[in-house]
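Form 7-S
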Amino acid sequence: IPEPFERPYYLGLFNVADVQQKGQIGGAEAVQFLSRSKLPMETLKHIWTLCDQPQTNYLDHKKFAVAIRFIQCMQNQTRAQGARLESPSSSTLRPAMFEGVSGTVVPLPPDQSGAAPEAEGKPPMAPATPQRPPQPTVAASMRGAPSPIPPGAAPMRGAPSP
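Output:
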């Protein structure tokens, strides 16, 4: 995590989220940035808990990348598989989207074939069409949608508050 073609995108997201430029993202910064994903706060708290292991109350580059992958899975309504949190072989995941950041401040990654966004007729900094999937309501997101979180995951500890 992330795949080589996604690394510049993940690094760009991290740099935007790391407001204090400490090389780690604390709870307040995480809430401010991750809430731009438009996922329910309860979902983001669960993601924080899973990613902040061992518990340090901040996300470094590696933990942040895992959080982004979980968010990407939730936005794509799919479940991550294996230790590298890969998508099912039959599906291609759209990039994790963060309002006001993805495709504007941070260019979107190329698709998995290696083609840059320009190759699809889209300007590199502003996609011609929205790439974020329709966002479910809080209630709908918690019922019926596959969770990227593995069954039997640890209970929430140290998750940031809104």
